[in-house]
Design a protein that fits this description.
Length: 196
């Protein structure tokens, strides 16, 4: 029991801050100057923890036109009376993602960096104080632009049994740097052993 005490015409008011989510039964007893006493009806109060939510993602960096799965994980409890709403970059009506009202959603972000925000609210939260938030940043990279350089110039015709040298690479600032895998084809078919 904490908070403030206040008196109004011999009425005594206390503020309670319960520390758990079991229902409380509140009554008040009033006694006037003549010694007459009455007790109020029972008032039931349920106390809910504020949701503690953390977003996890299938990836934090993807290529253009790709998708990412975001999951809102509740750290403290999993109450069926929770609602979820996802936003893009900030929490306001102009950035709300229509239809994104589940704990797990799949998004197709635009090129660049997007901050996804989840808002978790309890349905019984009438004063809008039992709300949890988390944010996750997703970077969308341009599709890799591959270059191939013919190293036998100026010769474009060779004899059977001779070798041809072609060097491939990815232009800077395209794709996701590091971990590239090159697969070589000849006449539309994979050349066995030529990848890496």
């Amino acid at each position: 029991r904490t908070g403030f005490h206040h008196g109004y015409n011999n009425h005594y008011i206390e503020r309670w801050e319960p520390s758990y989510d079991n229902p409380y039964e509140f009554t008040v007893e009033v006694t006037n100057g003549d010694g007459c006493t009455t007790i109020s009806d029972i008032h039931y109060v349920n106390v809910y923890d504020k949701p503690v939510v953390n977003i996890t993602a299938s990836a934090d960096s993807i290529c253009e036109n790709g998708s990412v799965e975001l999951r809102a994980n509740l750290d403290n409890y999993n109450d069926p009376m929770l609602t979820f709403q996802w936003y893009r970059n900030s929490i306001n009506n102009s950035h709300i993602i229509p239809g994104a009202t589940h704990a797990v959603e799949t998004f197709y972000p635009e090129l660049g960096t997007t901050n996804f925000i989840v808002e978790v609210t309890h349905l019984m939260d009438y004063d809008q104080t039992c709300i949890g938030y988390d944010t996750f940043e997703i970077k969308v990279n341009p599709i890799p632009v591959v270059t191939a350089e013919y190293r036998n110039l100026p010769y474009t015709t060779i004899c059977d049994g001779r070798e041809v040298k072609i060097a491939a690479g990815v232009l800077p600032n395209t794709g996701i740097a590091g971990g590239e895998v090159y697969t070589w084809y000849r006449n539309g078919e994979v050349i066995p052993g030529f990848h890496g």
